[in-house]
Amino acid sequence: MSIQNKNSGNKKTVKRKEPLISIENLEVKFINQDATIHAVNGVDINLDKGKVLTILGESGSGKSVTMRSILRLLPPKASLSGSIVLDGKNIIDMSQDQLSSMRGHEVSMIFQEPMVAFDPVYKVGSQIAETVVRHLGTSFNEGLARAKELFDLVQIPSAKSRLSAYPHELSGGMRQRAMIALALACSPKLLLADEPTTALDATVQIQILLLLRELQRELGMSIIFVTHDVGVATEIADELAVMYAGKIVEIGNVNNVIKKPAHPYTRGLLSSTVNSESKGKRLEVIGGSPPDMSKLFEGCAFSPRCNKVLEHCWGQKPTVKSLSINQRASCFNI
Amino acid sequence: MSETILEVQKLKKYFPIKGGILNQTTAEVQAVDVIDFVVARGETLGIVGESGCGKSTTARLLMQLIKHDDGEIIFDGYAVGKSGGITTREMRKRMQMVFQDSYSSLNPRLPVESSIAFGPIVHGVNKSAAQKKARDLLIKVGLNPELFSRRYPHELSGGQRQRVNIARALALEPEVLILDEAVSALDKSVEAQVLNLLMDLKAEFKLTFIFISHDLNVVHYISDRVLVMYLGRVVEIGDVSAVYNYPKHPYTRALISAMPSMDPKKRTEAVPLVGDPPNPISPPSGCRFRTRCPFSEDICAIKEPILIHTDLKKRQSSACHMGDPDSGHSRTNLNGLPK
Q1: Interchain pair A228, B188: CB under 8 A
Q2: CB-based contact (8 Å) between A267 and chain B?
Q3: For B43-56, how does the pLDDT look when each residue is reduced to its tens digit (9 = 90+)?
Q4: Which domains, from first to last, does chain A contain?
Q5: What is the share, in percent, of chain B residues with pLDDT greater than 70?
Q6: Which of A149, A246, A261, B79 has its CB 3.0 to 4.6 Å from that of A41, i.e. a possible disulfide?
Q7: What is the largest CA-CA distance in chain B?
Q8: Residues A215-228, mean pLDDT to the nearest whole number
Q9: B236: nearest Cα among B246, B226, B245, B224
Q10: Are B215 and B179 in contact (CB under 8 A)?
Q11: How far apart are CA A192 and CA A45, in angstroms?
């Protein structure tokens, strides 16, 4: 996976295999009466089959909106431009019918709050069976049998009896497992995970992360995982993308980005994250507060908070620069 | 001035669950089930545990926002709410709290300056002096009063609102500050700013902190001692370095190894703990952790392990049969937990 350098012009240099999903210059605006929110401002992502991309960012950085654009799960006031190509089909141009057959089949999603993702008045087993029936055209009983298989796959103990439980009867961790089962029902090529472990306790969070890693390897699917937590990102990512103000500021192999962060924002984010070595030291913080997304920045959106800001950062947008084969960042200091 | 600022003895709180036609109590949630601990003047005591373990209930009991069923809270040598002791009102003046939700804990109709000045006015300070104090405190928490004092809570960001909450908590010049998940809702870059601020204020005003969080890294960073709770009980308490590096209780060890690694080359390979915490309405008999404990034996179901040392001199103590050679458990944690 890589981000394409738009300024390089010719892309014929290296013949690479077709990525599973390719997002180019994605922009998402929310048009309100009094203001327009520029949530995503030109995101490029290419994700190969069988890889896990984690998008790390703070609230309002556009990470969830980017992900929801892939399923077109945005309110009507959202205006999308750019392209999102999955297996040769552009999702931006899809009709409602095409979208419904894609959602939950080729691409599915898990959320932070499984209680909201399930319908509270139906049993979890029938909700999974319903998805199978809808997309694969099986009978309801076959669907239920598939649900049982999936519950075993996500390691829900006494799967058979849990199928007839209502969502509120399951504990937080179980509910999250049931939602993963629901998402995997039709063997999607791409799983989108929107902070699926944020609401969970630490001991349950690590169970779910290990489960997702195992399932991803076994089933060979790709995952785009959104989180604000550096630790969670480190546990699950192959590739790590750091977002700020609707842009990917740095992307690369997780090891490179965590060990040798290049963008001042990535560095600041890592140094302000408390870890086991922070004790006794003063935390190095990023000053100021996140940007107002109703205003478009002429230059680099991080300039007002950046400790390495240069004269031209304010007026000019930095281009993507390669640090190595596995790491790219957009900053004039590189 | 005594060394101990706060002492909790056999504190207990059960929440009744009502049901049936007559609305009778059908069950009880054993939120805090007989806990003891002491807090030394000037220290930071961290409280960690999974959701539902009773950490927030403990905080609310300390502030007397809810009434305890049994036990005693002793503030600076005086029993709270007892004759010959200290009144709740007097205690609250000396112990203040900051909550997780920075928005719902501020009055939406009051400018932040009035919110901060409210406490001192209630406690008899005249209005202009209280307002001056509020403006001074805004400076202390890093907000320019010229810009912020007339603003309403909805006009501030989450980090700014939490700074206002901290200023308000400090307005009565308390000795103890209870921080209940005070930085949990903030973004990491803002969380770090607020943590630095808290450390500065603690030094400047010689405060004692009770810092409740589910984030073990943050608790490790800020605390001198840490208290680990599980299903309404204290399972381990001690110096933060001892507890984090050499946990004596199997639950503490599991909790610490469940922290995500910050190194992509050293990812967590095995699940440290299976399942979810049991229901606090009907906790397991004996040791409450035994249903998830890898070292559980017959004795654990029969006898409840007790946390013996709660005094400040002891560096570390845990409520586990493995810590007591006479308990009947076949293993010992005295030289560290078994593998």
Answers
A1: yes
A2: no
A3: 999 999 988 899 99
A4: 6-97+188-204+211-330 (3.40.50.300), 114-187 (no CATH)
A5: 99
A6: A246
A7: 68
A8: 95
A9: B226
A10: no
A11: 14
